[in-house]
Amino acid sequence: MRLLNEHRKKMNSMGYGTWKNIVEESLVRVSVIRYLIDHGYRDEDIRKEIEIEHKYYGFVWLPTDIEWYKGSPLSLFED
């Protein structure tokens, strides 16, 4: 909840007024980055997209390390 409180004004201005909206849109943002990786976009372009998500859109909780996005999504559930 603290994260939402710290970024509430920015998120509200973009139409993300509830935690559910923010979680859903965070998943969309991660999916876009993964799409760029899976379709052979240059690392430089992918890093720019990650930076845009952080600086312009305010999704500062998304990982900035491109290698995190290149990993298997299922690895999050491994021991």
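That was protein one. Protein two is written in the same sequence-then-structure order:
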Amino acid sequence: MGHLNLPKIVMRFRKKRRRSKETQEPTHHFTIAKLQAQSTMYQHDLEDVREETMQLKKQVAESDWLLCLAQTRLQNLKRLPVTEVGENRPSCNASISPRCNPVPVWIDEIWLCFEANDASLKAAERHWQHQAPRVALEVILKAIQGSHLSTFEQIRRHLFVAALQFTLERYSESMQCLAMAFGLLDHPSEPHGDHSRELVGLAYYIQGRNLMVAGEFEAAYVSFSRAQSTPGLYRMVRKYQGVVVIDSTGAVPYDPASVRSLPQPCLNTSDTKDGSMCPPVPESVSGYTMQGRPV
């Protein structure tokens, strides 16, 4: 067996490795450039997919709105008795339809005044009704600090403060108050009685208004849907659900309860192409701007 010349073998291996590295280096640079180009292309594709996803989500929100309207309308038609003249007239039974409840008293379309509210809360409501929301906030905060409150009263006051903070455009503080209210609702230390339903509904309604301002239209629609069956909230919830659809899709939803059932003739026939009919105009969203704020 011949003698191995290790130094020569090592040198030959090093030269071969150097040549291999030189031949592979351009390929290495080419691979990096190719990967960078592919990465840029994939980023553009991802942006296109995100944009398409947003458009689909908007269409889903509008479809959900229309489906909810159709289901509500169908349920109402099943409940309405037919009179002798063949006209449908609603029955004012509050247990059947929340829309037949007595007209609720709203403050700035964000707070609903309930008869169950105690004296201190009603005093704060009066200040708010007289265009003094900051005074109302001071009154209610003093009432919270100066007395021992039941769980129900704590929740009510947290919701009241959340509504006030929303009116004062302190949306982060409003959401913090809502979080405290939801925490008490989820883990009550005592039963809420018959008022739990209205508390939950009002909490979701205020949450929906905050989410609208934040531009989270789908989440706002879901919150409004959870508040829809609460007595006294139905009409206001439906109004702002319509505003949500308009703000999120740019399309005006068709609401049979808030538009004329048939198109009305135009007084000026030059306003339409065929000079015959004008399309119905929703009344529930007139006078409102983006995010559902009154003009």
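The CA atoms of residues 2 and 274 lie 106 Å apart. Keep this in mind for the problem set.
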